[in-house]
Design brief:
Blueprint: H1 3-30, E1 33-39, H2 57-65, E2 67-73, H3 79-88, H4 118-124, E3 128-132, E4 170-176, H5 185-195, H6 214-243, E5 250-256, H7 271-274, E6 275-281, E7 289-291, E8 295-296, H8 299-307, E9 332-336, E10 346-350, E11 354-359, H9 371-374, H10 377-387, E12 406-410, H11 428-444, H12 456-468, H13 474-488
Length: 491
């Protein structure tokens, strides 16, 4: 071939390749960037949700310029099952990830055939995928994942969207520590330095099932300061998007992974543990809209894919709650299983008005021994007050030696879920209806049920726990023995 012809063909190939790349970039540029701001251990204690003790201007501004969901709920009230569900758009009970921090030892958990993490789907569609931590600390470290199944780290391209190609859309998860920031006087001093003030404990309003004890009040004040600091971090993310000219092409979703870490919150299926904030803003999102219908955190996976123009897998259980054809849920479901070493098995269904909870292990105490929770000063103080007979009848519910097999609450009349109506004759039709709904949900979603204490997975995970806690393992070992003894006794 003559040199001039070879050169012409070479130029033509380069031009064709360049045009194709430009076409891809042009198409990609039309797709929005998706940012999830996902927070640990935090309930909807933001001003836009009615909190009056502290102000949260940045999350409030998101709500004012976007859509706020007032009835968003997680499907698991503890980190790893919730995060495993969120990142797949699947109930954790359907994919074998329902036990907290499971699959971490020699025994592993693999996703069912056809189920893929959301970042894989974004990556396949040409998105740059990234996951990082607080914008205060920078973006060099990978953000919290905490998935209970085996996953490929390559599903994340980086820890920050700055590594993407020109014009390439990105899917970013910003993982914030939220309610985990409560560290006593050190945290209070930090808040005063960074935010100019701290929340006075005496101004705190507690749910009436917690006593107004100085330890409890101080902890809640620290928690509210964590809410304020989270709001500040959200502002840093939004400011960066604005500064880089990305705000008008980026959809930001703000949510938490479960409610406040307290005695009746985290790890339990009461609203304190499952009710979370959800605010979405960005191009195409209705401004100033308030949605009061029931949604689940797994819906965030489906709606994000839809916003990016990516097909939602037919098997995905999350729903695109922003679709024009979306039919609102009439109920949401949640499950609590093993948390660390502590075996439990609870399921719930919540409608607009009622909450039904089924305790599969009713012979066990309400507040079972758990190394993680029992190390918290607030739980220690509650146990002290219980031993000293200084709690009232409502507060003593935490220390019930056994549980009712079924719980039913009228959330309109009893939002704190105190008065169990399961035994009331006037509510039997409601009880039967919700009992049946829960049974159907467990069957239809393939609920994998309770993990026996004698399984290889439990022993594998407990061995890993003991390796990870080189000091202070006495309580952990004692609790493991107790779980196995109770199981042997049929308790």
């Amino acid at each position: 071939m003559k040199t001039w012809l070879r050169g012409l063909l070479s130029c033509a190939l380069v031009l064709a390749s360049t045009c194709a790349a430009l076409a891809v970039d042009k198409t990609a540029a039309k797709r929005p960037n998706i940012v999830w701001i996902f927070v640990d251990d935090m309930s909807p204690n933001f001003s836009c949700y009615g909190e009056t003790t502290v102000s949260t201007p940045r999350v409030d501004a998101m709500a004012a310029t976007g859509t706020k969901f007032t009835r968003a709920f997680v499907t698991a009230p503890v980190c790893s099952p919730c995060r495993s569900a969120l990142i797949t758009g699947m109930y954790q009970t359907s994919i074998g990830s329902q036990n907290h921090r499971s699959g971490r030892g020699t025994e592993k958990i693999h996703l069912p055939q056809g189920v893929e993490p959301v970042p894989v789907l974004f990556q396949r569609a040409g998105y740059y995928t990234c996951i990082g931590g607080s914008p205060v600390k920078g973006t060099t470290a990978i953000g919290k994942t905490d998935y209970n199944f085996e996953w490929d780290e390559k599903m994340y391209d980086g820890t920050d969207w700055s590594g993407r190609q020109p014009g390439q859309p990105f899917f970013m998860q910003v993982q914030l520590s939220g309610g985990k920031h409560r560290h006593g006087a050190k945290w209070t001093a930090f808040v005063k330095k960074e935010l100019g003030s701290s929340t006075p404990p005496e101004k705190v309003t507690l749910p009436h099932y917690y006593p107004r004890d100085p330890v409890i009040l101080d902890d809640w004040a620290q928690y509210l300061d964590a809410v304020r600091y989270t709001d500040y971090e959200v502002g840093l993310v939004l400011d960066r998007l604005e500064k880089e000219g990305l705000a008008d092409s980026t959809i930001v979703c703000f949510m938490t992974d479960h409610g406040i870490s307290h005695a009746r919150g985290k790890q339990f299926l009461y609203d304190e543990g499952t009710h979370v904030p959800l605010v979405i803003r960005g191009p195409g999102i209705a401004a100033g809209k308030v949605r009061t219908d029931l949604v689940e955190q797994i819906d965030l996976a489906a709606l994000s894919l839809a916003l990016a123009g990516i097909a939602i897998p037919a098997s995905m259980q999350g729903r695109d709650i922003l679709a024009t054809s979306y039919k609102p849920r009439d109920a949401v479901f949640a499950a609590r299983d093993r948390c660390d070493e502590t075996i439990d098995h609870i399921r719930s269904v919540r409608t607009d008005r009622y909450k039904y909870i089924r305790n599969f292990l009713p012979k066990r105490p309400h507040l079972q021994p758990n190394r993680y929770k029992d190390a918290k000063q607030i739980v220690q103080r509650l146990r002290e007050l219980h031993a000293e007979h200084k709690l009232d009848a409502v507060q003593e519910l935490l220390f019930a030696p056994e549980r009712a097999p079924e719980e039913l609450y009228d959330l309109t009349a009893d939002p704190h879920e105190i008065n169990n109506l399961a035994g009331e004759s006037a509510y039997q039709s409601t009880l039967l209806d919700l009992r049946g709904r829960l049974d159907r949900w467990m069957a239809e979603t393939g609920d994998l049920g309770r993990e026996p204490e004698s399984t290889a997975m439990y022993d594998s995970d407990m061995a890993e726990y003991l390796r990870g806690h080189k000091r202070g393992t006495d309580a952990l070992e004692s609790n493991i023995r107790l779980m196995k003894r109770w199981a042997a006794e049929g308790k």
